[in-house]
Amino acid sequence: MSERTGAGKRAERPVRITVDGESVEGIEGQSIAGVLLGSGRISWRETAVAGKPRGLFCGIGVCFDCLVTVDGVPDVRACQRRACDGDEVSSQ
């Protein structure tokens, strides 16, 4: 039987977002959390009371630990929002 030669594969297109003033590259279709993790960031906000670091925890939008501000809109769940080329993301 012959080998499959890339049938069904999608070309990976890069997306570039700005995170706290730093340019970060991801792949089209990744969540913002995926792009952040891929860039080596494990936390991107702090708790209001104790100042403890938070990042991705549940990955399904339930825990709200991954909140970021995207294009001026606060409280966006990074695990639920796909990264779009040109997004301006800031920590909360």
UniProtKB/TrEMBL annotation:
A Pfam family hit? Fer2_4
Keywords assigned by UniProt, alphabetized:
Oxidoreductase
**What Gene Ontology molecular-function terms does this entry list?**
iron-sulfur cluster binding; oxidoreductase activity
Which residues are in coiled coils?
none
Q: Which Gene3D superfamilies match?
A: 2Fe-2S iron-sulphur cluster binding domain, sarcosine oxidase, alpha subunit, N-terminal domain
Output this protein's name: Putative molibdopterin-dependent oxidoreductase YjgC
What organism does the record attribute this protein to? Answer: Pseudoclavibacter helvolus
